[in-house]
Amino acid sequence: MSPDTARGSARPAGPLLALLAALPFLGILGGIFFANRMTPYVLGMPFILFWIVLWVVLSSAIMALVYRLDPANRQPADPADSADPASSAVDLAEGAS
Question: What is the pTM (predicted TM-score) of this model?
Answer without folding.
Answer: 0.59
